[in-house]
Amino acid sequence: MGWLSKLEQPWVVRALLALWRTFTDLDLSDALPADYRSVHAIFTRQLRPGARPIDPRAGMVVSPCDAIIGACGTLAAGQLLQAKGMPYALGELLLDPPLEAALHGGHYVTLRLTATMYHRFHAPHDGVLEQVVYHSGDTWNVNPVALKRIEKLFCRNERAVLCTRLTATGQPLVLVAVAAVMVASIRLHGLDVLFHVRYRGPHRISCAARVRKGEELGWFEQGSTIIVLVPPGLSLLPTLATGQLIRMGQALFELAASHPAGGEPG
């Protein structure tokens, strides 16, 4: 599918696009006008300026992507839910005990991108991208059926852990970009690296890239999942619910009063 999606043949693009629209709700009205030379170009399309308003409130941490909320809640006893009755351990997802400890007692939101959605992801808040850790693995489908049947799926799939630190408070904020079937690569700005199942480069890459809330960080080749992890001191908005459609730039978390936005890092 990856090979087919990158074919630059007009008749192939027209045929696949027509088939895609027959079975899905693909909407390109908010994308930048483009002469799509391949289906891959549609998957990785850019948006028109202003198509995704970014919540301007300084204390709000926003969604990095368009998605459906698959699960959300507190990191109780170091566990998250991938589906109802299907817990998994934060430690197995991150494979990083110090980072796990820093997030203990915090919150999470699992964001599932469908095939028709905008596939680029953005910074949830002003901060510094300090490190990217790549974990090779499987590429199981991440649809609801698979999540209810395959234990610890996110811990088994290929993933990139983006470790950022909030400028306002110095607290960590982590994005786990999970690849899946037909999504065999993840591209990140600032790193001249294409993460994919055959990647054999450094497992842990240090960086010091300053990012602004809403700034593009990278993209999936097609669609998958991003898990947003925050420590205590950030509260999950009570209006969020499993199954909710959310757009990039909408608020997910709020900085607590004890960690006011705009202060110096701790």
Key traits:
266 residues; 7 helices; disordered C terminus; 33% strand; alpha+beta; globular; single chain; 17 strands; eight-stranded antiparallel beta sheet; four-stranded antiparallel beta sheet; 2 domains
Write a brief structural summary:
The protein has 266 residues and is an alpha+beta fold. It folds into 2 domains: 51 residues, no CATH class; 203 residues, no CATH class. Helix content is 17%, strand content 33%.
Secondary structure blueprint with pairings:
Blueprint: H1 2-5, H2 10-23, H3 39-43, E1 60-62, E2 67-74, E3 79-83, E4 86-89, H4 90-94, H5 97-103, E5 107-112, E6 120-122, E7 127-135, H6 144-149, H7 153-156, E8 159-166, E9 172-178, E10 185-188, E11 194-196, E12 204-211, E13 216-220, E14 225-230, E15 234-236, E16 245-246, E17 251-255
Antiparallel strand pairs: 1-17, 2-5, 2-16, 3-4, 5-14, 6-13, 7-8, 7-12, 8-9, 9-14, 10-11, 10-13, 15-17
The mean pLDDT is: 84
Beta-strand level of the residues, as a percent range? Answer: 25-35%
The SSE order reads: HHHEEEEHHEEEHHEEEEEEEEEE
> If helices are DSSP runs of H or I spanning 4 or more residues, what is the number of helices?
7
Task: Classify the secondary structure makeup into a structural class.
Answer: alpha+beta
Query: How far from one another are the termini?
Result: 46 Å
- Please state the CA-atom Rg, rounded to the nearest Å: 18 Å
**Share in helix:** 10-25%
Question: What form results from the Cα inertia axes?
Answer: globular
